[in-house]
Amino acid sequence: MAVFLDLTEEMIKCFNDCSRTGNYQRFMTNNRKFLSDLSGNLRKVEFKNDHLCDIISSQSKCCFDYILKWNPQKPEIIFGTYNLDKYIPDFVIDLKYALKIKNWNDFYWKYRSVADFMISEALKQKIIEFGIEYKGNIFDSFELRDLVVENDAMPVGPPVTNIWQDTKNSHVMVDDEATKKQYNAEMEKRAQNVVNIKIFGVKSSEPSENVRKRAAHITTVVDSSQNVTELTTGGIYSKSEQDESRLVRELPTEPKEPTKLRRSERKEEYRDFAANIEMENMESIIEKILRKKMIGYCKTEKLECLEKKFEAGISSLKIYVDRKLNSLKTDQEERNELKSESESNQEKMMDLQEQFENELGKNYSRISLLIGNQIEKLNKKIEEMKEDSLKQEKEIKTIMLEVEILKMEMSSDSEDDEESVVQEAKLKIRELFDSFHQELDLRINTNHEPDQSSASFDGEIEKEFSAVREEVEQLMSDISYRSEESNPGNIDESTESKSPSNPVDEDDEEMSRKCERELDEQNRVQGQKLQAARQRRAEMNKKAADDRKKATKLARGNKKGA
After folding, report:
1. Three-state DSSP class for residue 451
2. pLDDT in tens, 185-231
3. CB of 131 within 8 A of CB of 6?
4. What is the pTM of this model?
5. Tens digits of per-residue pLDDT, 400-429?
6. How far, CA to CA in Å, does 143 sit from each of 39, 50, 154, 173?
7. Spatial separation of the C-alpha atoms in residues 544 and 554, rounded to whole Å
8. In whole angstroms, how far apart are CA 24 and each of 19, 65, 72, 369, 541?
9. N or C: which end of the chain has fewer CB within 10 A?
10. CA neighbor of 407 nearest in space, from 518, 485, 307
11. What residue segments make up the domains of the chain, in order of their start?
């Protein structure tokens, strides 16, 4: 036998109050028996082809525990609700979201059809007869209850005063028989458009198991231009039983001895009474239909307003989209222009880079040619200096030969001529040194360009200078030695007799010392000049190396940029 469970308005109000606070303890305690009966009987209902309904029916108690125990601030899995999280995670997510925001509207509209399907299946299997109460009426589904709620929420139109009626002239209004005939004709026409519609309506004050078995048939009139439709609403009760009882009460009593005239009168009275009852019923139904038509007109007007707003929104949206498209087109054109400009600039950069590379190559070739020419000039100068040094060596050798000859002559000449010979030799030596230093100055002053062979050149100059110096010293020593050999008796006499030294020898010694000092001074000056020339060559070599490095770096950077 089916279990009758009704969801009353008090339960719904209590649940809404608890949802605002987020604490559902009062709802669970006040409706513990209802919830336990619902969860216990839902397990008996079978849902073979619906996984969600099957899990909810078998785990309905876990759903109620979730509502009572789950805390949004500490989102942990509730004990015993593992199957819900495992098999229907989407349903659990929606349930948690509704509990978190304290608003069940989205959850209700999403799962209303699921609840109606479960109610209908439980009713088919005769396990649960579930009802939803609204304004004293009980409905078999949430959808039917929501339809009635929407109809009650719609604004009621103005009273219907423009009801169509047939116009009558004065003659017809006076003639009662004509009015009766016209009335009967209208009733016959309206009777053709009468249909039976089954409307279920129950009162919550009566027991639900008895109320659900009641159904009444009422008649409604529809215009001939419209199609016949079936209307299902709640909270409307038929008056068929009342009309039948009224008809039985108001029928005239049968005479003890009926006659044909009495029967005909009674038939006419019965017909008039039935017509009056039908007329009253039809007028009430027509008023309801006209009211619904007015509601429909209001709805159509609202729909027209919404359509106008929608069209205005679409037009404004089109304008906005057109503006956006135009702005996008202009942006795209600007981007294309910038792209073309960047491409042209890139081409110009490539051309400039090529020109720079060409100029750099030309400059590099020019610099290499200049360096090669300078190196050739330096090599030529070095060769000329070598030739000059060879010539000077030859001259020195000739001078040495002359000195030897002079020595030989000095040995053969007398003592009177010795002093003159020494002076001539010193003069020649000075001339030799002067010519050598002049040539060296010319070489240093003319050789300003850097060369890799500067070290070897300096070494050769030092070698030549040292060789000339050694030869001169050798010449001086030979001269002094010859002079001593030429006057051995004088020296012995001076030593034996311890007489004062010979003034000629003293003059020779002074001259030799003076020559040595002059030679040392000249060597020092030439050494300073040689050191300055070396520093100048080193600076010039360093500068040339830096210029070469810069040129190579520029060439590498241009290659990488290309």
Report:
1. coil
2. 655 554 443 333 333 333 333 333 333 333 333 333 333 333 333 33
3. yes
4. 0.33
5. 777 667 666 666 554 555 556 556 666 766
6. 22, 20, 17, 50
7. 15
8. 7, 10, 14, 101, 98
9. N
10. 485
11. 1-153, 355-561
